[in-house]
Amino acid sequence: MMALPILNGFVSAIGNTPLLRIPSLSEETGCEILGKAEFLNPGGSVKDRAALYIIEEAERSGRLKAGGTVVEGTAGNTGIGLTHICNAKGYKSIIVIPETQSKEKIEILRTLGADVRLVPAVPYANENNYVKVAGRIAQEIPNAIWANQFDNLANKQAHYETTGPEIWRDTNGKIDVWVTSLGTGGTYAGTAEYLKKQNPNIRCIVADPYGSGIYSFVKTGTIQIEGSSITEGIGQGRITKNMEGMPADDAIRIDDKECIRILEHVLRKDGLFLGGSVGINLGAAYKIAKELGPGHTIVTVLCDTGAKYQSKVFNHEFLKEKGILP
């Protein structure tokens, strides 16, 4: 049996997550559908990577000093990752989160010791949008930084330096398609840029829920928003700094019914209890596999587990109310 290295605490356990083959979807399509198991990060999500890079970049630049405060506007997972790292490094965290996000994520943040500020969910153009509120709070507090995950390029760099190389290594360079949804754009863009550099023939495809404008941006060059989605932390009505110039060969839009169907399917067939955005990711991977036919390798992201979304995504009463029970 091969010995695993002993890691020094929370921070050193971030990254190097395995690729999981999704047996039921792979066997049905004849493709290798692989998910990067980001729920195995110590903070429970893909956002641990960006949180670490953002904090370490702020330390290196001298903006974040001993005893400082990290402020962020987040749908939840970045805030959770940041708060874990702040606890490990001796910083305080203030997390601004829309009140519409799942109660599970809000309670986790409080349990971790974050100063949680709930705000109404309003569009980015509104001065009271959670991202802008976080920026203002950071300016008002001495020795505080605004993490600014949407426009802070340390986010994308995390995935260019870690997620992309790990996928390339673990597939032995045999990958045909990289597909995932975007919130800040960091995971998709950083990984896509790295993979394209290794092999320009790898197709990089955006997965988007309804209620987001990235699908139309990739297809037409303009942001147009249609419909809505119950998914959290993904979808966007603007092009963030992390998205600028990203490689995008195509885009696929997945509706909530297909998202929930896929999540229920992999739970019952593969034993995988996964979060809402993963339904969009796997729905897109499955659709691509069907279109391409057998023999292709498609990689996506398993962002987090379903435990943070039981009150919504796995609540049949809620789904019935929304008219999206499969």
From TrEMBL:
Listed EC numbers: 2.5.1.47
Pathway(s): Amino-acid biosynthesis
Keyword Ribonucleoprotein among record annotations: no
One Gene Ontology term of the molecular function aspect: cysteine synthase activity
Catalytic activity: O-acetyl-L-serine + hydrogen sulfide = L-cysteine + acetate
Cofactor (UniProt): pyridoxal 5'-phosphate
PROSITE patterns recorded: CYS_SYNTHASE
Domain Tryptophan synthase beta chain-like PALP: residue ranges: 13-304
Keyword terms: Amino-acid biosynthesis, Pyridoxal phosphate, Transferase, Transit peptide
Superkingdom, natural source: Bacteria
InterPro entries: Cys_Synth/Cystath_Beta-Synth, P-phosphate_BS, TrpB-like_PALP, TrpB-like_PALP_sf
SUPFAM superfamilies, per the entry: Tryptophan synthase beta subunit-like PLP-dependent enzymes (SSF53686)
Keyword flag Amino-acid biosynthesis: yes
Pfam (any one): PALP
Gene Ontology terms describing biological process: cysteine biosynthetic process from serine
Family: Belongs to the cysteine synthase/cystathionine beta-synthase family.
Protein name in the entry: cysteine synthase
Name of the gene: cysM
